[in-house]
Specification:
Layout lengths: L1 H23 L5 H26 L16 H21 L2 H5 L1 E5 L5 E5 H25 L9 H8 L2 H10 L1
Antiparallel strand pairs: 1-2
Length: 170
Amino acid sequence: MLLADAFEYKKWANEELLALGERQLHQLPDNDAEFFVRILNHTTVVDSLFISRLSGIAEHYGADNTRETPTYGELRARITQNDAWLVDFAQRATAEELQRVITFRFTDGDLGQLSVEEVLLHLLTHGSNHRGMASRTLAINGLERPKDTFTRYLHQAQPGRREAARQALS
């Protein structure tokens, strides 16, 4: 299922970015290092909020970011936990579950209503956007940034695709 592949990709891309960040964070100016952690923290807080909404459990956050900047280890643990939950959920979601509509309150007080499928698409695009912002922070400081395209992920995860392409194009 494409959604399950997309969340496996999100997990893979997060791991790659976190590994590069961990190796290079000390090379960033303090304000850029803090931005790198906080923008990824924002993403994982939003993931957590929607996981709570999908699960019907109380939300752990009252805003779309935390007041305190987490340590890198705390950030990595939160992202890893959320990614594992989302991969599992996307793998198990039925067509009926994807059409289920949830009603909730955004952290700014506005009301929202989305299908489960729309929530999942939001989390994918939201995460991609903010990974891009974190990657840009590395790039503008002359540091290595991830090569985290979906096509690269698919060919690493399914190496037979390269052989199939070679055979098809021969």
